[in-house]
Amino acid sequence: MTIARPRGTNDILPGESEQWQVLEEAIHRICQAYGYREIRTPIFEHTELFERGIGETTDIVSKEMYTFSDRGQRSLTLRPEGTAPVVRSFLEHKLYGQALPTKLYYVGPMFRYERPQAGRYRQFYQFGVEAFGSGDPALDVEIIAMPIQVYKELGLETFEVCINTIGCPDCRPAYREALRSHLADSKSQLCRSCQTKYDRSPMRILDCKEATCQELTKDAPLILDYLCSGCRDHFAEVKRYLELLEVDFVHDPRLVRGFDYYTKTVFEIKVESLGAQDAVGGGGRYDRLVEEMGGPPTAGVGYGVGMERVLLALQQQAGDALKPSGMDGFLAQFGGATKEQAVVLAHRLRALGLKVDLDYLDRSLKAQMKAANRSGARWVMIIGQEELENNQARIRWMYDGTEEAVDFDTAAQYLAAKGKEPITQ
Ligand code: HAM
Model-level pTM greater than 0.85? Predict the structure, then answer.
C-alpha cells in the first residue's frame, strides 16, 4: 500500500512550482518597492502566543489549531497565521527601538484544521505584511494598495475590495451592547455557534453564513453610528486616500473578520469566481495588539494573502499567463566522442546561464528531437561524427527548422548571446 499526502495538503509539482516562483518573485519585488523587509519566523510557536494574540474565542484558536506537546511537554502550535508571530518577534528583538515605522513582510506556510474544500486547505501559503509604529490612515491605504499591485501585475483584474471599520475599544463596547439588545429577544433562534458568540463577541454574528442568522441581523444597528470621532475621522481619511489612488472599493458595513486584534480599518479582497472560498486576502489595523502582547503602545496594520487562491484565480482569469518558459536548448549526440563533446558544451552553456539538457538514455536522434521539443528548447545542437571532424556544431532553430554551423570553440558564447533573443529572430 502506498501512502498518500495528509488531507488538506498539496504537493506543488513541476509545472505548478514555476507559477509559484513567478508569484513569489512579484511578492518580493513589490513588498520591497514599498519599503518592506522580509522576516522569517518559526513554523511553530508557543500555543499561548496564538491564544493571547488571536483571541481564545475565535474559530481559529477554539477549533482550528494544530497543537501538540513536544517531548519536553511544552504546548506548541503550527502557526495558523503570521501576525502574532511577527508581533512576538518585533517585541523579542526590540525592533520598536529602531526607526519607525517598522515594515516587515513574510511568505510561508500556515496551518489550520479546517474542512478542506476548493481553495481551503490545512496547509496553505500566505504572504503578508505588518507595519508597526504609525496610526496614519495613509498607511492603511498603502497596505490595501500593495496586494492589489501584486494581483494586477500578475494579470488578475477582476476582484472586489471590501472595507469597513470596526471601531476601537473606546467606542466598540457601546456598539456591542446595541447589537446584543437588538438580538436579545431572538437569541435562541441564532445558530449554536452564534449563541456562544452573543456574550463575548457579538459582532462576529454579522459574519455568520447561516440564513437565519443573516435574517436576524438584517436590520441590526451599524457600527458607523457608534464610532468615536477618532475612528470616524480615520475611516473618512482611509476612503479619501483610496479615492486619491483610484482604488475601487465597496464599504461593507457587515465586514468584521475573525480575529480579536483588529481596531478601526478592516478589509477583504474577494474574487467571486472562486466560489465559497472567495477571499484572496484580508487584513486591517491592530493598534492595541503590541501593547496587549506586553510591548510599548505601538500602532500596527497589515494583511495576509492566500497564495493558492491567487493562483487559482489567475488560472481562471489569465489563462496561461503564468506558463513557465521552456529550456533554451538541447544537445543531441550519438555516444562516444560526440557525447563527450555534448557533456563539455552543456557544462559551458549552463555556466553561462543557459537552460540546456542532453540525452542520458542513449536514444536515437529522432527520440532526442522529440525530447527537445517536449522540453520547449528553442534550438537543438546536433553533434555527430561529421560535426566532430569539421569541428563545427550544427544548430537547428526549432521555430522554423533552419540550421547553421558554428565552431565548437565559439558555440557556447554564440548561443549565450543569442539565447535570450525573441524566438522569431
Ligand atoms: P485571514 O483572513 O485569516 O487573515 O487570512 C488571509 C488570507 O489567507 C485569506 O484571505 C485567504 O486568502 C487565505 N487563507 C486563510 N485560510 C486559508 C485556508 N484554510 N486555505 C487557503 N487559504 C486560506 C490573517 O491570517 C491575518 N493574519 C491577516 C493580517 C495580517 N491581518 C493583519 N495583518
Answer: yes
